[in-house]
Structures are given as C-alpha cells and as structure tokens.
Amino acid sequence: MEGIFHDQGRFVFRFLRRLGVPDADIDDVVQDVFVVVHRKLPQFDPQSSLRAWVYGICLRSAATYRKRRRSRQELTTGEEIDAPDESSASPIETLDAQKGREILDGILRALPDDKREIFILYVLEELSMPEVALVLGCPLQTAYSRLYAARKLVEDAIRRTRAQMGRP
C-alpha cells in the first residue's frame, strides 16, 4: 500500500485539485482516496492499469466531495497551496509556473465535469484513451467525442485569456 501511495500520491493530489477540490480540503479527499484504495485493493485486477483504477477512485471521491460541499457553506481563506515540488526552480520560474497553474485551474473549473475529467485524464495525466474510457465507464467513441469538445473549450478559453492579457 505504501508503494501505491508513493507512486500515485502526487498524481492523486494534482488530479483532485484539477477536478476542483479546494486546497483547504485536498488533504482530506486524498486521504479518502487512499482509504478506498486500501479497502478495495484485494479486489483490484492486476491485469488492469493501477493508475486508471486509482483515477477512477479519484473521480468518484471528487464527485462525492462536490455533493457534500453543496450541502454545506464554508468560507475559505483564499490562500492557495501548491502540490509538493521536488524541483529547485528559481523564484521567477516558480512564480511563472504558479501563474500558469492558476490560469489552467481557472479554465478547468469552467469546464463541465465530463469535459474536465476527460481533458485531465488524457491530456494532463497522459492516460491512454482505452484507459480513460475505462475510468469514466463510457464507450471509447464517447470518450473521443468528449475529448474533442473539451479541447475546443480549452482552446477557446486560452484564446480569451491571451486576449485579456494582451498577447496574440
């Protein structure tokens, strides 16, 4: 189990964050994911992709979190935390990367859930389309169709953002 956490922990953290789990709650939802992984590990089929299986658990945990969150109102401090970073980037590179993540996170938050999930899984987490379809529980063609729509929405959002920033 420790090996799964070590191998998948950063991806789970980043994936949940991109699925819209706020920083104030991210540790709790990551823990929920690994509690489910631990509980269901005996049922895991070793012929399947461990990464896709864990991401499926992440999707369900994020959806459960969103449902619970709708039923309660909570004020956050607005402070952002970043995923643990093992690189030794310069302060300017760190700021640029943080600004880029903030823009990407904003674009992802604006996407419908089904488009956001597929975009994150395929484009950002680099799962294969068969793995994505398996995680999402949809036919492969449906996954491709959602990906096409998600890419269009993201490209449009990037164009709008660049225009607002005065960049071509």
Can you describe this structure in just a few lines?
Helices cover 73% and strands 0% of the residues. With 168 residues, the chain is mainly alpha-helical.
Please tell me about this protein's structure.
This protein has helices at residues 2-18, 23-40, 50-70, 91-110, 113-124, 129-136, 140-165. It has 2 domains: 1-75, Rna Polymerase Sigma Factor, Chain: A (Orthogonal Bundle), CATH 1.10.1740.10; 89-168, Winged helix-like DNA-binding domain superfamily/Winged helix DNA-binding domain (Arc Repressor Mutant, subunit A), CATH 1.10.10. Helix content is 73%, strand content 0%. The protein has 168 residues and is mostly helical. The protein contains 7 helices and no strands. α1 (2-18) crosses α3 and α5 (113-124) packs across α7 (140-165).
- Globally, the shape reads globular
Hey, roughly how much beta strand do the residues contain?
Answer: under 5%
Give, in order, the helices and strands.
Answer: HHHHHHH
Radius of gyration: 17 Å
The counted number of beta strands is 0
The helix fraction, in percent, is over 70%
Straight-line N-to-C gap: 47 Å
Q: Overall pLDDT, averaged?
A: 81
The poorly predicted ranges are none
Name the structural class. mainly alpha
The domain tally reads 2
Q: Tell me the CATH superfamily of the largest domain.
A: Winged helix-like DNA-binding domain superfamily/Winged helix DNA-binding domain
Main sheet characteristics: none
Question: Could you name the CATH class of the largest domain?
Answer: Mainly Alpha
CATH architecture of the largest domain: Orthogonal Bundle
CATH fold annotation of the largest domain = Arc Repressor Mutant, subunit A
The number of helices is 7
